[in-house]
Queue: 2 jobs
Job 1
Amino acid sequence: MTPTDNAPIVPPPTEIPETISGASAGRETGGEVAVPNVAPVVLCKNCNAILVGRYCANCGQRADVHILSTRELVHEVLEGLTHSDSRLWRTLLSLWLRPGRLTEEFLAGRRAISLPPFRLYLIISVVFFLIVSVSQTSDVQVIQFSLSDKPAVKTPLSGVNCDSMTISNGTHPDWDRRFQRTCAEIQRDNARTLKQNFFAALPKTMFVFLPLIAFLNMLLYWRPRRRYAEQLVFFLHLQAFFFSAGILIVLLGDLAQHWPQVAGVSRILRPLLGWSLPVYTVLALRRVFRDGWPATLLKTFALSVAYFILGVLTESVAIVYAALELHV
Ligand SMILES: [Zn+2]
């Protein structure tokens, strides 16, 4: 593997491929113009500027915009996963080993060296929700700091007489009937569909949860004033760490169920991973917002409470949404 296998995504501005040298001699409008002994001029497909290098200097679009074949796509994914110095792994290592570092670098303008915050968050959250939804021991609590009660989907309404249930005390018979039908449906398939709907709704509710928690943190760190977007970047990174810890917690739990040999390791590692969340948050807040230790610890506590309350609210909304989606 040579450095060029894994060329930096954004080339230094001085790097001009030799194939383009002398290209301006053959400058004409429209598509490629072949000039004897001179490399063809290539125009940006987005803005028609002359391309020099792998990105358009005018609009920033990649020079190479051909649609990937399935083979190229698989190759690209495998390359990203297997090259230890790829941007994905560098970003993940930075995320896991240096709390707050990714946010700090992003805010300082050093952006090309790691994955953009939102893409990183999306990749990890997709894996997280996939694993949680197929896991035997899925522990939705890892989203929060706190050891709340199991979510309601874990306890189907077994033994409850749905017909006697009411949410409006008879003032809205339609609501009551719908509620009773929902209850009966949940009993009928042992909450399986409800659980599926719940896990489908959770990733969407995160797009409300993260902006809200970022806003609350903005209140905590009122001075010196930070932009709201900076808060969002911080929480995309923080939540990406939480989800990756959650992935390990769920996987360890499943492994321990199938192989009793790893149960001991799992029993030690899972609580450690759980405790890594508040510790990580303290370190990340301290690195990015640069308060002293006492203030950082106090704000972490306040943030944990907000995280917990918002987390419970988010899960509740997801459960209600899941129940409404039952089509009863
Ligand atoms: Zn362009």
Job 2
Amino acid sequence: MVIDKEQLIKEWVAEHYGCETYEYNAHSRILKIHRGASTRKLVVKYDKKRKEMVEVKYCVICSKEIVGWGNNAQPIRQGTCCDDCNNTAVIPARIKEIRNATTE
Ligand SMILES: [Zn+2]
């Protein structure tokens, strides 16, 4: 089966943003959604398992592509981080915060 990405993107934008004014670059996977005077730029890809377009998120700490749902990067940064950064940076920082809070 051939996947019509153009059609999928059209549906995805309509479903998530309620508009059909956008530009999609198939090479860079960058989707620019125009809404009035503002433009939202995001990266989308086709998820073979879910059989739908999904927004690609990048780790706010190491900038790598996030596989899966990602993790809350607080207290290191605001946003979403990858599993690696979660394990090596975010969780230790949280433990440290808790320790600091309980020793005061
Ligand atoms: Zn990361």
